[in-house]
Amino acid sequence: MMYKVQVRFLFHSDIKIKIPEIYDDSVFDRLFGILEDVNEKYNSYTKNSYIDKINKNNGHFVKVNDETINILSKIIHLSNVIGGEYDITIMPLIRLWGFYKQNPILPSLEEIKKVRKLVGYKKIIIDKKKKRVKIEKNQEIITGSFIKAYAIEKMAQEMRKIGIKDAIVNAGGSSIIAIDEWGIIAENPEEEREIIRNEKGIPVKISQNKYTGDDEYNDLIEIKIKDRSYSTSNQKNTYLLINNEKYGHIISPKTGFPAQNKQVGVITESAFFGDIISTGLYNQTSKKFYEIMEKLSEEMEISGFLIDKDGEIFYFNMEKYF
């Protein structure tokens, strides 16, 4: 089958849509229009979005629509399952670490301890009856870890309504949705020796990776997915350099420090859920990774892997995708 492709820049990423060539180019406008609508209404970085209004009126209730309530309710549920290591009110810690500064300085333990008190998704009050939301004074929600995936999931639903049965959407590499079966490559984030373990923690493979240049990566695994999304979190290209030390952008809401794992990959039906889960799992030990994946598997079909700070790879229910 022949395909056509369009790439547009949204959510600070190149969003690539590949569909069969039988469809008119106007379909791209329809699909990208859904992404633009989500960006306008629910992105915390968009002025006057519902989330922006909640942030600017922290400490007070803000009128919202049903979709905002639905998004926040699902996030809070997953945050509970993940054990609080995913928290959309993490923004004060991100600012403290200097991700919006030209010359970041390592924060003190006292500063981290003080700012951590502002972080807490359980303090978000959702009044479904009156359709309003409130966060505590000086809290701030950040949508960067889920809003792009939420948007492309809505777009994929529209594809199915149109009748598109063979397509793939790549949202900047961090989230991929495949309609019909597609093969994708999970890239290795580091040049390192890897020890791959199964669910029981038993080593099953040891490999020596060969990093060959700035724009070339050693393939970690090739997986085939159909009507599924693949979400990944790593900090290879998003970090601060302070005193010649790298500090990644995924910060633990419990410790206040950037997580040290190298990569998480998650396969789910929902790209929205997948991005949330991959971020939350990034802060976990291998033991907690398996515990949380077991809990999640009770309410959804899920597979994934964790590469810890030492380069060890832990797989959960991944064999069927190889």
Automatic annotation (TrEMBL):
Gene3D superfamilies for this protein: ApbE-like domains
The entry marks the following residues as binding Mg(2+), namely S145, D275, T279
Q: Please tell me whether the keyword Metal-binding is annotated for this protein.
A: yes
Which reaction(s) does the protein catalyse, per the Swiss-Prot or TrEMBL entry? L-threonyl-[protein] + FAD = FMN-L-threonyl-[protein] + AMP + H(+)
Q: Name one Pfam family in it.
A: ApbE
- Could you tell me which InterPro entries the record lists for this protein? ApbE, ApbE-like_sf
Question: Per the annotation, how and in what number is the cofactor bound?
Answer: Magnesium. Can also use manganese.
> Member of which family?
Belongs to the ApbE family.
- Please give the name of this protein: FAD:protein FMN transferase
